[in-house]
Design a protein that fits this description.
The protein has helices at about 40-50, 55-65, 70-85; strands spanning about 10, 15-20, 25-30, 35, 90. It has a 3-stranded antiparallel beta sheet with strand order 2-3-4. By secondary structure, the protein is an alpha+beta fold. The two termini are about 15 Å apart. Strand 2 (about 15-20) and strand 3 (about 25-30) form a beta hairpin. It has a single domain (about 15-85), classed as Arc Repressor Mutant, subunit A, CATH 1.10.10. The radius of gyration is 13 Å and the shape is globular. The chain has 3 helices and 5 strands; from the N terminus they run E-E-E-E-H-H-H-E. This is PqqD family protein. It holds the Pfam family PqqD.
Length: about 90
């Protein structure tokens, strides 16, 4: 099975994103649910939408915050699993 970090992702057709200050609010239209994303989650979302690989996004975050890459990857993995489970992202 392919690691979620090695896949390309895109927003679901049923998802809508809107920036509010430094945060991003996502609306899953079909489910009628919304999610507030902190600046770091917003950065992951923006990077994916700009075509960056998830692993590159993780590497950039780890370097910028002087954080262990393994921890950044694990946190990102959980975040992406949540977005996928809630039908906010789909495989590109």
């Amino acid at each position: 099975m392919t690691d979620i970090l090695d896949q390309a992702w895109q927003p679901s057709p049923d998802a809508f994103a809107n920036a509010v200050g430094n945060e991003l609010v996502l609306l899953q239209i079909k489910r009628g649910t919304y999610y507030g994303m902190d600046p770091l989650a917003s950065r992951i979302w923006k990077g994916m939408n700009e075509g960056q690989s998830v692993r590159q996004i993780c590497s950039n975050i780890a370097r910028e915050y002087d954080a262990p890459l393994a921890q950044v990857e694990e946190d990102t993995r959980r975040f992406l699993e949540d977005l996928r489970t809630n039908e906010i992202i789909i495989a590109a």
